[in-house]
# Entry
Amino acid sequence: MRVLVTGGAGFIGGAVVPALLDAGHDVRVLDALLPEVHPGGWPEHLDPRAERVHGDVRELPAGVLDGVDAVCHQAAVVGLGLDLQDLPLYVSVNELGTAVLLAAMARAGIGRLVLASSMVAYGEGRYTCGEHGAVRPPARAEADLEAGRWEPPCPVCGRDLRWGLVPEDAPVDPRSVYAATKVAQEHLAATWARGCSGTVVALRYHNVYGPHMPRDTPYAGVASLFRSAVARGEAPRVYEDGGQQRDFVHVRDVAQANLLALGHDLAPGVLRAYNVASGTPHTIADVAGALAADGAPPVVTGQYRLGDVRHVVASPERARAELGFAAQVSFAEGMREFASAPLRGGGA
# Structure
């Protein structure tokens, strides 16, 4: 197949591209090369076998979809978002950009889409109360966070909850600007699929890490923030008490998930979501400790960010059963590599 990878010069897109090429696909990369992300233009590590097109998904360059059989849509503004002033940027790139792409795909008769979605769609993960069973706690109150009460209580009785694995059929509950736009992308893609009998595989990435993550940006994932601190000779700064549970999945495994998704046959008009996760949860403190093993030990600050959630850990079972996906890079191996891997920006 000839595959268009939007955002193909980015952190995840840059790993997806060689995976597709190695599998025999022709690849065209579309990237806006935003200066804040790509200050030097096309990154040196981007696979030279791919065709490159400089352009924005919001204003697709003429001919970018010519001869294309499928699209891997990775282009997005990522991260939690610093404040509500980020709303126009996130909505413009993530929602409008996706809408422009889908409309163009419909005109071109392209009916296969792999969508980079996110675990942030779930908000707080899955919880059960010993008395009230499965519950969905509301957003944590600022007063509780100020007092260091990190765990969300049962919304009925206020007791402690047990977290569990989140399946793909859990209700979406976005709790940040970024999360809201990722849910909107899924809804737009589902509408497109129904309207043109297309198929969408929505890959809900969990905490992706690995070489060429962006460096020294507040919009990066926590693994990148810790790795950037280590590169500066500083101790990683851990928010809350470090006990937040996440699933960290290596970018090479994410690239493999995209390859498998391209070959998956869905019924026309269907969007199917899959958790892309390792299946092995770790705390934020675990990550900081792994990356700072040879340097200054992590500092637990007790700081917090409104909009952060406490525990999000997913079940990878559907992806295993239907896509044949299973993460291959272990946490220990991946973090050991990442501790010295190059970062994007700042000369790395």
Remarks:
- The mean pLDDT is 93.
- The radius of gyration is 20 Å.
